[in-house]
Amino acid sequence: MKTSTARAIQCSAALAAAGLLLTACGSSGGSGGGSGGSAQAATATFKGRGPITYVAGKDTTGTVQTIINRWNKAHPKEKVTFIQLPTDADSQRQQMIQNAETKSDAYTVLATDVVWTSEFAAHQWIEPLPADRFPLGRMLKPVVETGQYRGKLYAVPASSNGGLLFYRTDLLKKAGITEPPTTWGQMTADCAKVTKLPEAKAMSCYAGQFQKYEGLTVNFAEAVNSAGGRIVDADGKPDVDTPQAKKGLDFLVKSFKDGTIPKEAITYQEEDGRQAFQSGKLVFLNNWPYVYSLAQKSAVKGKFAVAPLPGLNGPGASSLGGSNLALSSFAKNKATALDFMKFFTSEESSTYFLKHASLASPYADLYDNAALDKQFPYLPDLKRSITKAVPRPRVVQYGDVTAAVQSEVYAALTGKKSSGQALKDLQADLQKLTAQ
Q1: Buried-state track 226-242, b at ≥16 Cβ within 10 A, e below 16
Q2: Which range is the signal sequence, renumbered to this chain (predicted)?
């Protein structure tokens, strides 16, 4: 492993909290969004049946083992063992890379963050998959694209993810606010009104994920994209030293300085923000949809709703998150693994994860299901969030790229550098990394 990659993996998002996010079966649906299905199948041999492992972040929702148990009951000679890694995506990635570099067969099916596909495929740590074995045509196109590398399918969507704004409906209503904010300015103005309420004086306005890990890359990217900027252009060339990107970073820096974002949020990962919101410390929270089901079981049940992320001059743009399933190149019993991947990423399994863990489905038709929309009224907003989301840079050197982003943005948030200097330094870092 290159030294720079080692540094990066010692440094995400999302949704490692569900055990399959960090971010998917049946062959009847056709190949859809994949290309070269038969050619891909010829590059890998799916032989061997017997026990396998499923490797993912810690399951905080309690849903993953249920699906695995269903498989194990029907396949007693091909049982799946669930290996749970830490909740943060950086640690998950580190352990998966370590397993691959030793060519160990301990890991079979990997739950990978959507931004790892290029890196894992380029290093031949994961197998190209037969696209015609999965119903990709029924999935949202941007989600399917996260599993592709150089025209081949290397990972199948298990879930998607789009950032959402969770907010306290009871407090906004009491403050005379009838609609959630669509801009950063409106959000801070709403907070000023809400925190004048006796029951909200000790509350902070807003938080996302700002610890130096993948979540910081996600939140920075959302701020930049929501201000009209971008990290890389359409050709993958760095384009972050711009007035638009500075407006996005300035919003975060200023919010830490003026208290819009509480100082302790510099240590927040997804779960920290969720717990702060549920315990009544925040009026607004930027997080993934998995929070919805858990918050419904907390003290804020019936007191919150979900809206699109706000931006500089209107609705913002989420980073595209989610989890894909990939097959380790060094695994045994790959025939079993492929069948398990089809089972785990089926629309039936996806519906279960949506209903019981509010995980975003890759299947388009679930967002237009009247019964599900009634149970999860945020689904239309979530679909828009996913379809309009901006992918993080899809580069082979992603580990180094995200480490550079985290380092420079964290320096700006903690006052060690100005926004302008941090972006100039980040532009230089990214130019070196993408030129390799």
Answers
A1: bbbbbbbeeeeebbbbb
A2: 1-29
